[in-house]
Structure formats: C-alpha cells, structure tokens
Write a structure and sequence with these properties.
CATH class: Alpha Beta
Structural class: alpha/beta
Number of helices: 6
Radius of gyration: 17 Å
Helix content: 10-25%
Largest sheet: 12 strands, mixed
C-alpha cells in the first residue's frame, strides 16, 4: 500500500475539480495484517478524543491496532469519530475471531447479527444522558452477505476485554451467550450507532476458542491462521469495495 502522509484532517477528497464524500469505512485488524490493501493516503484526523490515522481514497480504511496498540488500549472513540468526520456513513469491520461452537470451524466466515460484551464498552456520551439503541444494520449486512456468498449470516459476537486469551471455563460460559469471541467489534458497533453510522461486521474464524480445538491456542497460531487466509481476505475486501464502496 502506498502511503502519503498528511497532517491536517481531510473530510472531502478532490479528484480534478470534483469533490466527493467518502461513504464507506472499512475497519481492519489482524485479518488485514498480511493483505494487500488499495493505494490510499494516510491522514491524521483530529477528534475530540485524540488523533486517529485513516487511509483515505474512494473509501476510508481504519487499522484499529494503531501504533501496535493491543485491544484493551485502542482509543475506540477517536478511531470511530475519525471515520464519521471523514464523511463515512457505513462501516464494515473485519474481525479475527475464535469459534465458540464446534459447528463453526476455522476458515469459516460469519456475518453476525447481534453482539454482547463482557467488558466495558466505550461511549461518546460522557457529558449527556443518551441511550442509543444498539444494532448491527440488517440492510448493510445483506449487502455484505451478497458480496460473500460463502459466508454464514447470523450469529452472536461476544466481546471480551483482552489482551489475554479466554480461559477454558470462560469459553464454556461464553458459548452459552454466543457463537464467536473477539475483543473489538462490540465497541466499534456501539460507537458507530452513537454516531449514526450503519454498521456490519465480517468475522474471519481463525481458530476454535480455548479448549474447543485439539491444538494449544497461542497468539502465534492466530497470526498463522490470518496469514494463511490472506488471499481469501483480499478477495472479500475487493468485492466489498467494488460493490458497496
């Protein structure tokens, strides 16, 4: 990916004499670590919650683990606010997840329709009383599903705090709550709802959660799964950008 550094916020991009608003935002993490990404301009966006880096072009790309931040230290309000300031009104988040069900094997792709969090979820409403209805947007998810016919639509994403992997006892408890486990999507979905952006997620199942599989789970193993799925991830990303973006 060609990176051009800019310091000031860019909310509208100009091509020739025509200005256009960026509509689609993509969030990526481990699942995009090894993927070939489109040529975009790296731009630092100032937000009320601190700066966040976006890669801007026909889409806005946010790499959630900015500056190597682990899940529990990601500045989610700054990251999601930066997307809103860039003009994004639809967000598709890619997430690497563990499977909480034997029937959902590694290599699967799931587009969840609900989420639950066992960890505190950030908010932008720290100085006013607001109660936003949480949701994963069914219309956007249907568009995403049309781009990924091999994906399973529906399922519940369970967010834990991280950065450690869940214990086997936790996995047994979480499996009664949902189908997938990760550390980021619930926070991103909630903030997108607060900022009136439609939200959907593409969950790349890289492993069985701790205790469900035969192998001893480690972060290195998760990275190896993500690396092995690079071509699949690139293809899905291209389909979504071409069709929705």
């Amino acid at each position: 990916m060609q990176i051009v550094h800019q310091k000031c916020p860019t909310f509208y991009l100009t091509e020739g004499t025509t200005e256009h608003r960026i509509m689609l935002g993509i969030i990526g993490g481990t699942s995009l670590l090894f993927a070939e990404l489109p040529d975009l301009k790296k731009t630092e966006i100032a937000t009320p919650y601190g700066p966040a880096d976006l890669f801007l072009g026909e889409i806005a790309l946010l790499l959630r683990h900015q500056h190597g931040m682990p899940p529990h230290r990601i500045n989610f309000p700054a990251c999601i606010s930066a997307l809103a300031l860039a003009g994004v009104d639809r967000v598709v988040a890619f997430g690497s997840v563990g499977s909480l069900k034997k029937s959902i094997s590694p290599g699967s792709i799931v587009i969840p329709d609900d989420y639950v969090s066992t960890a505190p979820v950030p908010t932008i409403h720290n100085h006013s009383q607001e109660h936003v209805m949480p949701s994963i947007d069914s219309h956007l998810s249907a568009e995403v599903a049309a781009c990924i016919p091999e994906a399973t639509t529906g399922g519940t994403y369970v967010q834990t705090g991280g950065p450690r992997i869940e214990t086997q006892a936790e996995v047994r408890a979480l499996s009664a709550m949902g189908d997938l486990v990760g550390m980021t999507v619930a926070s991103e979905a909630t903030l997108a709802n607060e900022l009136e952006m439609a939200f959907s997620a593409v969950c790349m199942v890289d492993n069985y959660a701790h205790g469900l599989g035969d192998d001893t789970l480690s972060y290195e193993q998760i990275l190896n799964y993500a690396r092995a799925n690079t071509k699949k991830t690139e293809m899905i990303l291209e389909r979504i950008i071409t069709t929705i973006g």
